[in-house]
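Q: I have 260 residues here and want to know how they pack in 3D. Can you give me a structure?
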Amino acid sequence: MPRFAANLSLMFNEVPFLDRFEAAARAGFDAVEFLFPYEHPPEAIAERLRANGLTQALFNLPPGDFAKGERGLAALPERLDELKAGVDTALRYAEATGVARLHLMAGLAPHDDAKAAEAYRRAVAWTAERLGAAGLDLVLEPINGRNMPGYFLNDFGRAADLIHEVALPNLKLQFDLYHCQILHGDVTMRLRALMPIIGHVQTASVPERHEPGTGEMNDAFLFDELDRLGYAGFVGCEYIPAADTVAGLGWLTAYQGRAR
């Protein structure tokens, strides 16, 4: 059965961020992920993880000014020095939290812009090498344009091609079932084809991005498929609860009961 990680940026918003770790543990999760930890000291994050027996599954490298609409720096040629400084910041949080993988956001740029493509490849290779020296994986996630208009990396095939081209063992694909369904469909066959390079999986229902099992995909089938494919990593629950987070966890209880 997949190991599910609660996404604390979207789930348990009924309480302040640092209190969400305890809320997730009480709800039965043993792992968490989130978008960004940088508003809190790394020691504070680490203490909440230890106190609640939680594993940190994933978080993102600094994305620029997220509040002002920036969604990453990697495809922006003039921001490479800022990206490198952000990697150093993220590594301090990685050391404190024990996380094994970080996600690099591409940024907003035309996907067919040659300068953006070269900047992105350069940033990905540099970041993967830097994280590899620290024993960490770097993951890349294609994101659909409905949720993030103008995002540079918006195709699973292009992401896979870049991963194969850079050819570093710690550079992997972040496979979000939700984004794949919106971008391409045929999720099961893409999972099968791309499993050798997948380093992290995320889930949400399509189209509303609510709890698994509430949309058009057969989420339980896909979770079983991950088992059939031998996926041993985490499945991040990056969904927006339709109402109260805990009240909406019936999908998890039902799946765990069926999978036993």
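Q: Anything worth noting?
A: The CA atoms of residues 100 and 169 lie 14 Å apart. The first strand starts at residue 3 and ends at 7.
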